[in-house]
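Run log, item B.
One chain of 165 residues. Sequence copied directly from the ordering sheet:
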Amino acid sequence: MKNMLLAMFATAALSTAAIAHHAGEQFRAGDIAVSHAYTFENAEMAHAMRVYVTVHNTGDTADKLIGASVSFADEVAFEAQVIDASGSLVTNTLTSITVQPGQSLTMQPGSVWIELDSVQSTFKHGQHFDMALTFERAGTVTIEVEVEESEHGDDHDHDHTKADS
């Protein structure tokens, strides 16, 4: 049941029409086009970052995103938020992400993303970095990821440890 819920959520979340988060360059490998790659700036002490991309399969055969890597993180994983059988929101690690023929998959906050763990660099708004994505059929494509302002924005600098008066 858990796998069925995960599959249903991932398909629904990723099958939405690709809406450009920002204008961006398109990177290609075989029948796969990757665009709109972004993350949010991270704090100096941050140990993880999430990357979001849009993947479009222009071919006649399904392909799978099976790996990703960057030079500054020890581990990279694919993760998705789902509601489990008990009704709780949980994050699951995926071994791959299938892209059906003609399908556009848009990763976005709260659905599916690429998780960079044990991050050893700090990135600020306006910077970029390279990430390699590996597909089962199309092979490896190197993309450029744009760093955007913090998810929380400038108005999120208050202290959560104190009660509001």
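Observations after the first pass:
- Helices lie at 2-14.
- The first strand starts at residue 27 and ends at 29.
Flagged for discussion on Thursday.
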